[in-house]
Design a protein that fits this description.
By secondary structure, the protein is of the alpha/beta class. The chain has ten helices and eleven strands. It has two domains: 88 residues, Leucine Dehydrogenase, chain A, domain 1 (Rossmann fold, 3-Layer(aba) Sandwich), CATH 3.40.50.10860; 134 residues, NAD(P)-binding Rossmann-like Domain (Rossmann fold). Helices cover 39% and strands 17% of the residues. Helix 6 crosses helix 10. The longest helix is centred in the N-terminal third of the chain and has 23 residues.
Length: 293
Amino acid sequence: MQLLDGKFVSEKFKQQIAVEAAEAFHEIGRKPHLVAILVGHDGGSETYVASKMKNCEEVGFKSTLYRYETIITEAELLKKIEEINVDTTVDGLIVQLPLPGHISADKVSEKISHEKDVDGFHPVNLGRMQRNLPSFLPATPYGILLMLSEYGIETAGKHCVVVGRSNIVGSPMSILMARNANPGNCTVTVCHSRTPDIKKFTLDADILIVAIGKKNFITADMVKDGVVIIDVGMNRETSTKTKSGYKLYGDVDFENVAPKALWITPVPGGVGLMTIIGLLKNTLGSAKKEIYP
């Protein structure tokens, strides 16, 4: 078993991004600029946004955070997004999910200009991704591709099983792994909560990408020897044994599954860190007008 070490790889990419950000500063006369909007006080969202802002600072980006209470109306939030869309000093805009129930996440995603959609959720970017055209890729799948490439994981001709079909990870991941690209060129099977006997499919996987949001869902009897496992799960549980007051678990029973894997991502220290890299690379690409000149 060998670890796909997100900490090591992300630090390497951040050094590269910092160099490119400095070059971009000289070219465009300002730092790449990421704006985040956070609604409410969800603990996980607070942590994720703080990490994104911190990483922006580390690589030489400018970052701005707009915070709103949950009483903000959908119309007010959409108006703020419109203002940011036309601000030529902003390269990327993200709205942290989940949102309060009275605000449509789909409306919010579609309101963000696809040219500033560095989370890669806008229908234009998803459609261009499906056609293998230049686009902002969803940050988590993008980070996974970067990790697979960095470690030289062979994907062509492999059977990739994706467990989970969310619009954020599972669905775009399945498209990216099937595309005529590297990484890619897999035969892809998508499993989800309605799939009967998921074990039948996971046992046949050469590459198993798990994003179903259930602690230790994948057990040792569900995988074959030599499988490559990407665990996207980030399940928080309260704990008196950690400084933060909670402990993170993946969707894979790491302790028992790892001995059978050729490569596996840890949780934490795996995909989550690479998601940040995907976001930073998208923002840098936007600042440099590499996707939408």
